[in-house]
Input
Amino acid sequence: MTYSDETLMAYVDRELDADASAAIEAAVARDPELAARVERQRKLRGAVHAAFEPVLQEPMPKRLLEAASGTGAVFSAAHAPRRWTWFEWSAMAASVVLGVLIGGAYIGDSRRAPVAAPSADLVAERGHVVARGRLAIALSEQLASTQKADAPVRIGLTFVSKGGEYCRTFALEKGAAAGLACSSGGDWHVQVIAPADRAGKAGEYRTAAAQLPPAVLREVDERIQGNSLDAAAERAAQQSRWKR
Amino acid sequence: MTPEEQQFRAELVSLLPRLRRFGRAIARNREDADDLVQVAVERALTRREQWEPGTRMLSWMFKIMNNAWIDEMRARTRRDQIFAPEEAGEHVGITPVDAHLDALAVRKAVARLNDEQRIAVGLVLVEGLPYKEAAEVLGVPIGTVTSRIARAREQLQTLLSGAEVAR
Output
């Protein structure tokens, strides 16, 4: 049986049913020339896909983020007299993204519709981005040494900052995003939050620091005083309600 | 902002990287692609009630982008500024170094396809949509998508001839 190029394309695009695909696979095994034709189609598909893949990693232009999230409009309407700082703006944009991450969206999967959920895990207050909801609970209660492997928020490093506050790194939703928060007057101020390094496999936890995005690691390096706390010191800090 | 609008916007934000990638495939350069995404996002927000929750927002957005692109092409023609791709006249059939087919050559080859073929390539090869979903986005029969993809591939193979992909 001979196959048209169009059929082989459909095969490579996974558009054929199981029987037709199996027939082609069997024929490919016998016929090197057919195998080469299939390979040619597969290569083209791979090359075209790969050529545009880097766009996903490019920084998102602010105007697009603003247009989609509506953050600029919300701030100017609700707080007209005041100019919001870039930090507050970006934090709000991050919280919109975060809501998506927590809702289980995964941008990289083309066949799965993202599911979004509004998030109340971060709020902007008086020039700070403050953890709320389950992020705040995890930061206050969870110990890296005893937390469950599938906890929605995972705590990484805990350390004392140069300013004398307790700071903790955290990862959200199987490491899709990670950040650093420091204790301040009973709240947790989020210092930085960033999407996780895509090189790390989702759901896989290595050492606490290994999976942190560079932006978070930089922030840790700048703030940390001495070493990170061990399990006993972490527990003691938690029992003192993060006050020193 | 109502919770519905917040959720809608959150989902839009999550789709932005994909929309930009599709935009890049059809608009040929970054500035035009991002303009296209922005126009589509703004249109989507004004037509929010037309989107049926539970259906795939990504396809719906691709449809809006496709229509916005067609509008833009018509407007450009009306303004008598016939769009010439910046690569026009360049020799695309570059022979890449070694056996490695470089991304630039592929993107230039894609830019040389006609609008219909390029958009089909963007949906199926770049964005990985099944033919059926691509056909729904474009509002054409599935056979039309199949043949546009087939012709586009033949042309890409020709444009990239000499490169590893064509051997």
Remarks:
- Chain A touches chain B through 49 residues (CB under 8 Å).
